[in-house]
Amino acid sequence: MRKPCCCDKQGTNKGAWSRQEDKKLIVHAGQACWRSADLHHCGKSCRLRWINYLKPDIKRGNFMPDEEDLIIKLHALLGNRWSLIAGRLPGRTDNEVKNYWNTQIRKKLKKMGIDPDNHKMNQIPQLHFHNQPQQCTSASMEKAFNPINGDADMVSDAGSCLEDDRMSAGSSHDLNLDLNVAFSFLSPTVVAGEQKKLENTEILENDEIPTLVLFN
DNA sequence: AACGTGACCAACCGCCTTAAG
DNA sequence: GCTTAAGGCGGTTGGTCACGT
């Protein structure tokens, strides 16, 4: 049974924030506990309001083309990890990125004939083993991509991903795989720049890394 | 002017993780 | 180590506005 959220308690507001509530929240921003703001919104709501709207360094307005490109690329790498994607876009919030993706980018990609969920032209991402192409499970892809975020356990994670896939495939082949994600729908300059960035990440410096080829 | 429709986005919901006691 | 409250995050909803009929 789910524990009741603080929002379910009596005396908490739902809905839009007033200017006075915003002012109060700004005064209390940064305190350890959002509830200390003594507002009639629950702590989660206070946090959300601050992060998505009141924080001073928030960049509002239209997304630049390069921001859009970056979102697409990061989404291809990370999936719907909006907070991680937003972390690479200074001044943008996860909610903003998520909304932009769902309302703008998703449509654009569909128009281009690209499946926005997997960034492919109706093909399935595959892990290529030495002798036999093997479809990567979503769980293992998840593990494989975690290292991009600077996870200290990235090597073991990638390894366990491979182990998972190997076990599920009933294969005992040695793995010698490298990460290679294609962004053929992006401009050549953007792709070159991103590839350079990827080359600087630890994941590509390891010898035993899965190859993930996204066919476009 | 009234109504319908679609787009946008702020806010909520529910699950999961984290941390305090 | 266990329990529980709070925070974090992704998915979803619903209010508002613009535009077309």
Automatic annotation (TrEMBL):
Classification via Pfam families: Myb_DNA-binding
Boundaries of every HTH myb-type domain copy: 55-109
Coiled-coil regions, chain positions: none
InterPro entries for the chain: Homeodomain-like_sf, Myb_dom, Myb_TF_plants, SANT/Myb
Cellular localization per UniProt: Nucleus
CDD domains: SANT
Keyword Transport: no
One of the record's GO molecular function terms: transcription cis-regulatory region binding
Keyword hit for Repeat: yes
Residue ranges of domain Myb-like in the record: 9-54, 55-105
GO CC annotation, single: nucleus
Domain of life: Eukaryota
Keyword terms of this UniProt record: DNA-binding, Nucleus, Repeat, Transcription, Transcription regulation
PANTHER family found in the cross-reference section: F14D16.11-RELATED (PTHR47994)
Name of the protein in question: Uncharacterized protein
Record organism: Acer negundo (Box elder)
